[in-house]
Specification:
- There is one protein chain.
- The protein has 181 residues and is of the alpha+beta class.
- The protein has one domain.
- Helix content is 19%, strand content 43%.
- The chain is built from two helices and eleven strands; from the N terminus they run H-E-E-E-E-E-E-E-E-E-E-E-H.
- Strands 4-6-7-8-11-1-2-3-5 form a nine-stranded antiparallel beta sheet.
- It is globular.
- It starts with a helix and ends in a 9-residue tail after the last helix.
């Protein structure tokens, strides 16, 4: 093999290795955002509250685009139910659309409690966030759910319900069969 072919092959491997590293390198997330907690349902919905959303963790990507977020998601109005153990946020597996479940586990004496807070949606740069907040079912003590008709949302960064709603519609896009109101 000639020297120029060897040099070219090494250069290609270096470029491919650098590209692989750049596409899959962990991304440190440290964000303290102003957000809005609000209820869907059009202009008649008056449930709107300014909140803080703090994210501290690391996002991991693979070549397929799947992302895992490991860290904390602190929403200022989030109240976790009482548990015998300490609640721990589980790693959030984000799909190709940027959505994943927010679940907390608590372990105590070999038993596990689970609290599902909601579904998180984010953009590729992880600079905008929206969460569908699950509510307790009035007929079942265990079930929690959400509806696009009158469900609760958290969106950040936003300072008004309109900004928050725009973020939700943009991030949730194809997951909904129409615009949220």
């Amino acid at each position: 093999m000639s020297k120029s072919i060897k040099v070219s092959a090494v250069a290609v491997f270096i470029v491919l290795g650098g590209l692989y590293w750049w596409l899959t390198k962990p991304i440190k997330i440290e964000q303290n955002l102003d957000g809005v907690y609000y209820q869907l349902g059009g202009s008649g919905s008056s449930a709107t509250e300014r909140i803080k959303v703090n994210l501290s963790g690391t996002a991991y990507r693979n070549l397929k685009g799947f992302t895992k977020y490991v860290g904390t998601v602190d929403v200022s109005n989030l109240v976790l139910p009482k548990a015998a153990g300490t609640w721990e946020l589980q790693p959030i597996q984000l799909d190709l659309e940027g959505s994943g479940h927010i679940s907390y586990f608590a372990f105590h004496n070999g038993k596990m409690d689970i609290f599902h807070y909601g579904e998180l949606y984010t953009n590729r740069a992880m600079t905008q966030w929206t969460i569908t907040v699950y509510e307790q079912s009035p007929t079942d003590a265990i079930s929690r759910g959400w509806t696009s008709k009158d469900g609760f949302m958290v969106s950040a960064p936003a300072s008004t319900r309109e900004e928050a709603l725009n973020i939700s519609n943009e991030l949730m896009g194809d997951a909904m069969f129409g615009k949220l109101r």
